[in-house]
Amino acid sequence: MREIVTAQSALRENSVLFKSCIRCSGDRQIRRDFEGFYISCLACGHISYPEVHTEEVARLLEWKTAS
Ligand SMILES: [Zn+2]
Question: Which residues are placed with Cβ below 5 angstroms of ligand 1, an ion?
Fold first, then answer.
């Protein structure tokens, strides 16, 4: 359940993607935790994970493959 987020503005935490939920067409909000970004639907709670390529994620992947 991955999707590509290309717009820079879409990667801002707490920004809302209106009517973008694939399950209920509700509004979704960008959230992030220690593992990275995810998008959760405000209406039905559906979670999806965007493909993000930030330096932070790259470092995390490096660390994972090195250990
Ligand atoms: Zn939804």
Answer: 21, 23-24, 26, 41, 43-44, 46
